Amino acid sequence: MQAHIARIQQVNPLLNAMVAERFAQARQEAAAADERLTLARHRAGAALAELPPFLGVPCTIKEFFAVAGLPKTGGVLSRKDHVPDQDATTVARLRAAGFIPLGVSNAPEGGLWMETTNLVYGRTNNPWDLSRTSGGSSGGEGALVASGCSPVGLGSDVGGSIRIPAAMCGTVGHKPSAGLVPNSGQFPDLLDDTGAYLASGPLVRRVEDLFPLLRILAGPDGLDPHCTAAALQDPSTVDLRALTVIPVESNGRIAVDPAMRAGVRAAAQALADAGATVREVKLERLRHAVEIWSAMLHQAASLPYAEILGQGRRISVAGELLRHAIGRPRYSMDALLVTASEVVADLLPALQRRFVDQGRALRAELDELLGDGGVLLHPPYSRPAPKHRGAWTTPFDFGHTAIFNVMQCGVTVVPTGFDSRGLPVAVQVVARQGRDHLAIAAAAAVEAALGGWQLAEPRSHPHSQTWGRTQAERIVAGKEQWPPP
């Protein structure tokens, strides 16, 4: 615990990844864990077996989850004083297994963006290059795990929010199959049908940590109507020689960086070397990944995103843009962009229905193609981590991950190496719903062949800038430009 706290204190001023800490309580809980372990060792036998499996292990939590006594703002300025008094189900399950939360990590305002920044806490930097994004929306967790601040991070994912930060920061991340892990106690406090596409899951250093964590996190809690009982199969039982691997380097519409394509090919070769069968298949409907995701999510939502941001009151995009123009913003430009796209979607109901039908057809196609023994390899993003605000230049590239939310698949992101600039490269390993063990087993083989996680050592340099809480406070006071230059 002391080592991880010291690491956070060393690098978080550069990263702005952890936004609220509980170090004093964590030290006390670690001391209590030491005493409990000492007593159990003295008694030996059954006493040791009765200890929680992860007694005393540090963890960090995305700020979207309720952690008793810590803020849960969702990055929304009007919620800056919101502090829950009890844990979300997943946080409580981690604690029961012995984990000790160190604090909560940064996320974009409202969650639906690839850059982790908001007006409450400011912007998070990528630990491999401080001038670049850590991804979103679990960007704080990606940066903390990648830089050795935390061995286990809890994130959430409705369009790539675990997988994009994992890929951009060089960690392992798993989006569980739909319905496997409950989403209750998470921002927004609304368990509508979008819960069928939202997934809570871990970001870690090594693939071998995923299955033990899923065993802890999975299962109904009586609160989330979309979480159902499901048998978890052990990845160690998978025979890779019986696995079918389908590499897809591009969705056929969005340009993909050669390094990301090479990552898919390297992963396919690693699995082929392990005895798997590699097949080439074209999936034409993937071209419409963003439209399908948007239409299916829009159909499932009971409240528009504009009302979620406004805490029940629909915000006016035009009015908020005017506030930006006079330097008095209440919402980030990223959140307003998402809100504006929702307004456009409302104007095109026939087109929405068409893409919902396309999504159902793609789901059937993927289920048949992957079956009980297949995985698909796909880039988690169009390129390695862009410069800050660079995601604005290609706002639809998140379709690489988002499509697998509405397909309800289990997906593991695993590092495959680095590009020529030293930025992490990764691959998505996709299995059909309920076959998470296949994705994890294949990812473990890729990791074994290609090396996996390496410790990121954040360093300040003349061409990078931190954008932390102080700057965020100046923006709110109208003394600083937003978005930052």
Give a summary of the structure in a few sentences.
The chain has helices at 2-15, 23-43, 46-49, 89-96, 139-146, 163-169, 210-217, 258-273, 289-300, 305-309, 317-325, 333-346, 349-370, 399-406, 436-450, 469-476; strands at 18-21, 58-62, 100-105, 117-118, 122-123, 125-126, 129-133, 152-157, 172-175, 199-204, 244-247, 277-278, 374-378, 410-418, 424-431.
- Helical content band: 25-40%
Helical element count? 16
Task: Describe the main β-sheet briefly.
Answer: 11 strands, mixed
Corresponding CATH architecture: Alpha-Beta Complex
Q: What is the alpha-carbon Rg in Å?
A: 21 Å
CATH class: Alpha Beta
How would you describe this protein?
- The chain has 485 residues and is α/β, with parallel strands linked by helices.
- 37% of the residues lie in helices and 14% in strands.
- The chain has an 11-stranded mixed sheet, sandwiched between helices. A two-stranded antiparallel sheet has the order 4-5. A two-stranded antiparallel sheet has the order 6-7.
- Helix 5 runs parallel beside helix 6, helix 9 crosses helix 13 and helix 9 packs across helix 14.
- It is globular and about 70 Å long.
Search tags:
485 residues, eleven-stranded mixed sheet, single chain, 15 strands, two-stranded antiparallel sheet, Amidase signature (AS) enzymes, globular, alpha/beta, 16 helices, disordered C terminus, 37% helix
